[in-house]
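Narrative progress, year one. The postdoctoral researcher (J.K.) led the effort to move from monomer predictions toward full complexes, under supervision of the PI. The following entry was the first complex the group processed end to end, covering 789 residues in total.
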Amino acid sequence: MMIEPSNRPNSATRRDFLKTTAAAAGAIVATQGSLPAVYAAGSDPIKVGLIGCGNRGRGAAENVLSAAPGVQIVALGDTFAEPLKEARERLGKFTQRKEIKQRGNSADLPESRCFVGLDAYEKVIGCPEVNYVILTTPPGFRPIHLQAAVAAGKNIFAEKPVAVDGTGIRKVLAAYEEARKKNLAVGVGTQRRHQRAYLEVLKRIQDGAIGELVGGRCYWNQNTNTKRRAEPGETNLAYQIRNWYGFPWLSGDHIVEQHVHNLDVLNWALGAHPVAAVGMGYRVPRDPGYGPIYNFFAVDLEYPNGVHALSMCRQISSCANEIGEYLVGSKGSSHTNSAGKLIFQINGKKIYTDKEVRKQANPYVQEHTDLIESIRSGKPYNELKQVAESTLTAIMGRMSAYTGKRVSWEQALNTREDLVPKELTWDTHVPVPPVATPGKTPLL
Amino acid sequence: MRRLIQFSLLFGICLLMLPLWRVGETPEAAPARADAPAAKHRSYTETITGSKIKFDMVAIPGGEFVMGSPPGEKDRKDDEGPQHPVKIQPFWMGKYEVTWDEFDLYWRARPGQKEDKEPETPKDADAVTRPTPPYADETFKKGREGHPVLGITWHAAMQYCRWLSLKTGKRYRLPTEAEWEYACRAGTKTAYFFGNDPKQIGDYAWFADNADEKTRKVGSKKPNPWGLYDMYGNVSEWCIDRYKKDGYATFPRDKPSLSPVILPGEERYPNVVRGGSWGDEAKDCRSATRFASERDWLRQDPQRPQSIWWMTDGDFVGFRLVRAVAEQDNLKKFRSRITRQSPDD
């Protein structure tokens, strides 16, 4: 059986939404009810607290400053002093730019609102000035940070993925419900959902341009990722957090940390999450500094009604590279690729040239523009559920690859797997697990 | 006679040892090292040490030319003037744009080489640094073997030249903007080196009308009068200079400036790019057309600092090598000062 576009859950809402606000996010949930206590609609300033001052956090802070007028960065938090210092300096310089000043945007970052340590997130969220938090720490911390930010009634921009295991996803789904009740806005860094070229392709698919969807493929095959060396005198925990990509409890492995983007596009187009996965993967020999994560995965994703999609991701240099998605329908196909070579095609025909795509709004800025617009118009949207589902899609694939077992959605969601250690202090010794072995590593 | 033989032997041994000293030299010493004066200024082929990869260098005679375009030139932009006379010393220029075959030797991990390479900010500031791999396909699916390098920053091109200089013992670098235009014009004064009619450009260049948004193998069109290929189109080419819109106004108009160059500092942008690319129309591939690099060439890079090596949106910029016969003083020690901390606007 095929998935008929018009029979998909929420498809009417999605299509109508795409028609009315092409530049905004797809597949959102507009919440109704009382406005958040911390933010009254209109032109009140957006006061940003940045939690996670690494390369992406600093990027997101610049993006939000470029996204709308009346934005101020007022608090910073990081586990370590160095990235926070760099963020503070960079934002000081960035806000001197003419185009930032013209929007009335600024950074106001006294020492008293710059927090370093494992509890820095609580302190940023505890700042009464802050009404918009950006969560850009390693993904393992995301569920805890989301829960704390929602409990404090803050609007949120969180980077993807939103968790590293099913236990974390359950927390995120609870936070989603709570945020809806409180009418908080939550954007999640799946910027393809805010990229004009993607929105146009998805709109055409949903309008029937390739017929009924029968399958799909998606890829994130890239070069070898970077790693960081241990510094002399560094604790076991500090090293793992600094070299977070290599540790499943922090990154979820690269299928979760990066490939979630492409899986999100499949779920978006198919209007559903998969019901099960059979995956495989391992790692070619590599320096132990890369941690116990894999460097390649291939997963068969089973969607409702017998639709299957193939997912591949790899981090090995000098191999065939591709980052993109293909959807196959009864009348044709689509191909989207937004990294490196730009491709936005329906039935083999370019919808935009490279040059046109590069002139369109920067999606990393647009995702904040849309979120702030939703707050100021009194209709805050919440992307948490859809990205929790895309994240769990990736987690399900990893669980299957690590164990060698077929893993159902329910098994992935209700797992006992709980990777993130509780009550972290700098003295906590976090054991490094062995590289998972399919057929031996148990499914929890 | 005996003394003469002894002396000759000693001298010969010293000469033989010279390459050995070079191997043992620290990178710091390399840029200051003078190229051995060339006996004859002739075109040659260089084989990159330790590989079978070769590239051709064309001897370009010294001379004088008028830089920039006249006010009446069609599609001229203000930054192409005022025209001013320039004197250029003899040099060699790459017959072709630098290809991935060459560049891959520099940055890609090879068998036996440690996967973990130099960090982006080495403690020894003089070390030659290499790019960490980008996450997306660095060729932008435009072809690798025989195709020009693209999507790399000015800093990456500069570091490649340092690496290549250490490998070969010859000082390779980016062309100055003046050298680039002098070599491109090849003695001509017209808008293009083949005349003023843009309709002919398809014989010489891969540009917007014939490239289908792709690059082609270098040297697959006709060369300019001095035997240089792809000076227009295929990829635009980095020059060593900082871009200044009104930079030409700083040079005298009544007497030739000798080897003019405006050297960049710590800021990442804007630097000069010349020649136009697969994405440019004929009017933007004239001999005098100037482009300035900008932050937007990395707009899809979501990290801060953005990569100092790869440009997420600069899939139209590559470079071409030059080598001076006698290096001008202000370039002898010049090197990129870009680091992670460099200002990026």
